[in-house]
Design brief:
- By secondary structure, this protein is mainly beta.
- It has one domain: Elongation Factor Tu (Ef-tu), domain 3 (Beta Barrel), CATH 2.40.30.
- It is 8% helix and 42% strand.
- Strands 1, 2, 3, 6, 7, 8, 9, 10 and 11 form a 9-stranded antiparallel β-sheet that branches. Strands 4-5 form a two-stranded antiparallel ribbon.
- The radius of gyration is 19 Å and the shape is elongated.
- This is Phage tail protein.
Length: 145
């Protein structure tokens, strides 16, 4: 999916602070947790996946790809340091995507990779967030997948 003019807010800053242009953003549905048990001498098995009243899910992975168009005199190394300080090792914080302004994910950044594209004068950025399975409605606190 190509997203031209979107961004996100995390750790009190918006991605446009760094002039990060997002080219791909994926928020796949979380995987359901299956709890099954077999009993000797019984056909089939028991499915306890929703025994607590609702289905449970694993955390989801949100991936973001984009780039920063570097100015001629701008240090890519300094930009990398600033992005790393903003995103990594911050724990579980609110992640708000521009196209889902009424919802937030509770997420933490788990990886951050850079690639220098000297020919285009870009710093390509690829990072991943681990997020709780449900997005939380900022207005009423309800949870949705």
């Amino acid at each position: 999916m190509r997203i031209r003019s979107t961004g996100f807010t995390y750790n009190g800053r918006h991605s446009l602070t760094f002039e990060l242009r997002i080219t791909e953003l994926a928020t796949p549905n979380p995987e359901a947790i299956e709890i099954r048990d077999k009993v000797a001498h019984m056909d089939g098995d028991y499915d306890f996946s929703a025994i607590s009243g609702r289905q449970r899910y694993n955390n989801r992975e949100i991936t973001v790809k984009g780039y920063i168009q570097m100015e001629r005199n701008t240090s890519q190394f300094q930009t990398k340091r600033e992005l790393t300080a903003w995103l990594l090792n911050k724990g579980w914080l609110q992640l708000v995507l521009d196209y889902e302004k009424d919802y937030c994910y509770v997420a933490k950044c788990t990886s951050l990779n850079f690639e220098h594209d000297i020919a285009k004068g870009r710093l390509n950025v690829d990072f991943k967030f681990e997020a709780k399975p449900y997005a939380v409605n900022i207005i009423d606190g309800s949870e949705v997948l």
